[in-house]
Write a structure and sequence with these properties.
Methylamine Dehydrogenase, Chain H; Neurobeachin, Chain: A, domain 1; disordered N terminus; 13% helix; 33% strand; mainly beta; 2 domains; 7 helices
Amino acid sequence: MAAITLLRATSSFTWSEWNGRFDHADRMFNSVGETWKNCLEGATDFKELIPEFYGDDPSFLRNQLNLDLGRRQNGSYVGDVSLPPWASDAKDFLEKHKMALESPYVSQHLHEWIDLVFGFKQKGGEAVTANNVFHPLTYEGGVDCDSIKDADQRVAMLTQILEFGQTPTQLFTTPHPQRITPRLQQNSPRSPSLTSPISDLTPGSLNEDSSFEDLTEESRKLAWSNMSRLKPACRHKIHKEAVTAIAVTRDGASIFTTSQDSTLKMFSKELKDFQRSMSFSNMALSSCLMLAEAQMVVCSSWDNNVYFYSIPYGRRQDTLMGHDDAVSEVCWSDNKLYTASWDSTVKVWQCDPHALCAHKRSHFQLLAELEHDSGVNTISLSPSGSLLVSGCKDGAVTIWDSNTYSTLQQVDCHLGNVHRVSFSPDGLHVLSVGADRCMKVTDVHTGMMMSSVSAEEELRCFCWDGNWVLCGGQSGDLLLWDLMSNQLTCRMAAHAGAVTAMWMNELSGTVVTGGEDRQVMYWNINT
């Protein structure tokens, strides 16, 4: 019922007088249901809802004067408008229709209708993608009638425009923000696919009322000691290309994934359903992270840009054009954004997240530019944010002081690409994996190689606690390594292609992985 309020507005109903006579009986406004179906399925029926549909006077739905409006082809006379079965009478229909207009569903989707009728999907490529195109004569400025010399032809053109209707003036050229509304509490009936929200995928000690702030070192150790019992809970193929990054809000309510298909996808834990899909360019998105108490998602792209997506407003809020080649990864700490790029630099930007959330264009101040000898594939910050580590295409791993932007250590760790780097929880060591199938641990203070493990396959991503490493392999399996003995202790079948992204919650009991097979998998520890 609520969807009736979202009819495409292009022309008025044909139920009033035209040239002194009523229209053909079968073209009159006879039934709400039939008209609704024609607008959805017909290629030539474009109607709008007039204001009376939301008023208090239902007389426009009744033939109170018993006018002879003709007989339809099925033999029935045109009389009162046939109403949907959920309306007991015309008055009840209007009351429920007004309720529908003010319903949470319409509020949450109103911006989509604005985009179609008045916004960026009214014209151009976005309109074609949205199947929202009409005859050229219906668009404002589509034809210059004054330039038509033949009077009869000009009158015919004007008559055609007046009879078919005209699209409104385009008011917006960018996506309209979503209306801020209270979050839905009920589950969406549209899709049962997302059956396991983040809170359900954690060990038994974490439930809906648990706080992510009350995590203990003991619980992490317990989770890691049971990591070999990690089991897949559910999987979803949501992208058209390989998944590149995963980010989850601190409360686990929303899950974001980026992909080489250029889209940022959002899942809702509360609705247990796929919720949003955003595309900022036609090139791959390489990473994402959360900002400002889950109000903003930052995405890096192969088109050299960094995009800021406002979750409450459902739109791109800002763009940082800071590199000369693809941006491979981004990190955040203390109002500083670190952007790594294949242009062989890591740039540090001063950025106020609250200004972004205030829906203002932000001023990005470049604080430093960290030069490398080759393209930078990956970066990571220490837990305290005082150190930065970068991994490059030439195999080098560099540790930086994030306060002075000076180099502390530079080690030629790998032969070929460094896929991932990360600090240990205590910030004393750096783990890196590369195209040479090696996994190496480097001491932060001395630059010495503390451990080196040769695997049977490339390790693409990982999470670790300083002693144990959960890796995503080129084969698509998850591999659990014990760094104390440098032994592979467990192999778990996961994806049909390489595991390209991995996220683990602070309790270390929930794991989300993404792969080249375009799937996102949710894992928990069976205790």
